[in-house]
Structures are given as structure tokens and as C-alpha cells.
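User: I'm putting together notes for a lab meeting next week and I want to include a structural view of one of the chains we've been expressing. I don't have a solved structure, so I'd like a prediction I can at least talk through. The sequence is below, exactly as it appears in our construct file.
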Amino acid sequence: MSIAENRRARFDYHIEERFEAGMVLQGWEIKAVRAGQVQLTDGYVVIRDGELYLIGCRINALRSASTHVTPEADRTKKLLMHKEEIRRLIGKVEQKGFTLVPLDLHYKGGRVKAEIALAKGKAQHDKRDTEKKRDWEREKSRLMRHKVSAKS
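Assistant: Thanks for the context. Below is the predicted structure for the 152-residue chain, given as C-alpha cells.
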């Protein structure tokens, strides 16, 4: 079940490979995630000291958050993956011009997981092509619906 989705990533990047990573979250963040207070559109993944961190994922605290905790909405979250996978990602990001972007947050076995992707940025003309294709698909489905209803 998806919690939050980064649709912008699919528009801005060519997705090459997908990975699933665990997330280190605090208690108030889990409650806010369950309430749907997550925004992933500006998120990106960085590699520091051989570890992955999710930056720009906004989790807004609930009003009922504990008084002894000071919630920080844009806190950097650590992502959990196997060392070999991280090493492989580091190699690709450093040598081939790839970047890591979060695609979505979802539940798996009661835990919050992040789906991240190894991606390459799209050029402006590629984005325009994507928009044209999307518009044509929308127009085509509208025409088909209209045609079907006209026959009835």
C-alpha cells in the first residue's frame, strides 16, 4: 500500500533501476506517516560516508505530537540497505552521471519502506515528448469513450 508518491521523479528522470530501502524514523514521524502527512516531491537521496540519506522528504508533525519532542519536518532520514548494494550504487552514481531519487513510500510487513531509483535526468525535449504522449493518450481515451457512448 502506497503512502506517498513522487510523480515528479518519473517526469524529470529516466528510471534505470529500482531499489527498496528501510527508513530510520522517530515515533512522531510514524504517527504522521500513518495520518498521511508526507510530501515526497522535493526529495532526493545523497550518499555520505558510505550510507544513504533521504533529504527533502517532508513529514508534518501532528498537532497531538508529544510535548517533550521537538518535531522537525524536513529532518534528514537515514535509509537502510545492504552494504554491497550501497557500494554498487556509489559506483554508478560517481562514474556514470546517475542520481538517486525517491519514487514512493510504502508499507511492507508493518514497516515504512522507501522505493528509490537509479535515474538519469531528462533533457527538456524529452520532457516535452512525455507531455505530448500523455496528452495524446488522454485525448485517445476521451475519443474512445465518446465513440462508444455515441453507438449506444
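A couple of points you could mention at the meeting. The CA atoms of residues 30 and 112 lie 8 Å apart. Helices lie at 7-12, 27-34, 83-96, 124-151.

User: Perfect, that's what I needed.
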